[in-house]
Amino acid sequence: MIQNLPFEPEFEQAYKELASTLENSTLFEKKPEYRKALQVVSVPERIIQFRVVWEDDQGQVQINRGYRVQFNSALGPYKGGLRFHPTVNLSILKFLGFEQIFKNALTGLNMGGGKGGSDFDPKGKSDSEIRRFCVSFMTELCKHIGADTDVPAGDIGVTGREVGFMFGQYKKIRNQWEGVLTGKGGSWGGSLIRPEATGYGLVYYVDHMIKYASGGKESFAGKRVAVSGSGNVAQYAALKVIELGGSVVSLSDSQGALILNGEEGSFTVEEINAIAAIKVERKQISELATVATFSSKFKYIPGARPWTNITGRIDVALPSATQNEVSGDEAKALIAAGCKFIAEGSNMGSTQDAIDVFEAHRTANPGPAAIWYAPGKAANAGGVAVSGLEMAQNSARVNWSREEVDSRLKKIMEDCFNNGLATAKEYVTPAEGVLPSLVAGSNIAGFTKVAEAMKEHGDWW
Ligand code: NDP
User: Fold this and answer.
1) What span, in angstroms and rounded, lies between the C-alpha atoms of 408 and 22?
2) What pLDDT does 131 receive?
3) What is the pTM of this model?
4) Ligand 1 touching residue 150 (CB < 6 A)
5) Relative to the CA of 183, which ligand 1 atom is closest?
6) CA 83 → CA 21, 67, 117, distances in Å?
7) Which atom of ligand 1 is nearest to the CA of 158?
8) Quick check: is 36 catalytic?
9) Which of 89, 200, 254 to mutate to test the pocket of ligand 1 (most atoms within 8 A of CB)?
10) Which of 23, 48, 310, 438 is most buried by a 10 A CB count?
11) Tens digits of residue pLDDT in 107-151
12) 374 Cβ contact partners less than 8 Å away, ≥ 6 residues apart
């Protein structure tokens, strides 16, 4: 149990999700000492909290809260994104940082886990306001990070533009050019494929799920894929699905969902590019929904998520917006619509109720009817994996080609899938014909790697 916790519902949810899968496996029977490791790993090594004061375009003082949770450095420098969103608080950043520890372990690269951000809302702000905020935020954060200490990246609300402003300020204050942030611009140290990496990696991962479950007979070709979100992860996941022959039947944002009319067709590359263009301006998809080419093909449902609003069959669901975006009832609706593969582009995209529904259907349905769920810490690990590759390129002062990075990403996602699968088979024995639990396997694989390193460092004994 975690003790003496303040009220941190999201962090508690993430902790309980991990702890319950360890408890329900043979891990603690085989290695009872790991209970102590779990207690130690669930307390962050350090949390930095600071004031961010900046000037708006009217010359007024604005104040936000800044945070960096340096959760665990057993495997390498703290690594994890920065989120700028009005809902950001310590519970959310601790849940994200906690998940990040085990996700980073699954990539096989040397990265610890961290997360940070601010309750600053970039929507409706001018470029100058965003620049002034980023400069002020980094003026404090730069005292606590560095290429060998802590390497942040983007997350919700933090794109290449914000990374650029923050990198510039770090460089000015510290007077050194170093790979202190990932997701940088291509001409100043960014890795090719980093913007695409989370979405592409998610689809590569699901491709392995489909092939394994179908004994190599099926692929994305012909699959109807429901995607939520329309930001970085959702856009590139959707583009890769289309490239592999699947149909994308939904996208969404914080204000509503855009759903394909009828049972035929798909979002096209051009339509996804049009959505990407309005998202650069931080506008809502509702603006596109009224354009004739969109309104004749899609229905826009204000305030809705896609899952219960799609016409016809759903084969694959890729939640790619934010945490807790699939409820237990929505999980049941997805399964009723035929969905067999659910994989999270977002972190903790499914509520615990939804995970319970997916996992219950996995164990109850051997053979072709099986439902298979992949948690974000495995399925969306491609983003941080390519961030790790960006760090490697920066250290060596080299730039790898698109093909080189993409092939490394593919290999990492394949290893991540196989590792989760093999670990599930080792620690959780499913009934004959039932697919192994990817959530249990991924949690156990990530946790044991970190726990072992911590033991060798003398962090627990
Ligand atoms: P973006 O900011 O690019 O996009 C976020 C998308 O989610 C937008 O469509 C946004 O809508 C929507 N959204 C945000 N908050 C809510 C909400 N409360 N309810 C409904 N929709 C919401 O972020 P990313 O695409 O980078 O991140 C999406 C998810 O993927 C997050 O969970 C993130 O932690 C996770 N992730 C991201 C990685 C990355 O490399 N970027 C790596 C691994 C995980 P709107 O435009 O209206 O705000």
Assistant:
1) 30
2) 98
3) 0.97
4) no
5) 40
6) 27, 10, 4
7) 2
8) no
9) 254
10) 438
11) 999 999 999 999 999 999 999 999 999 999 999 999 999 999 999
12) 205, 206, 209, 341, 342, 343, 344, 420, 438, 439, 442
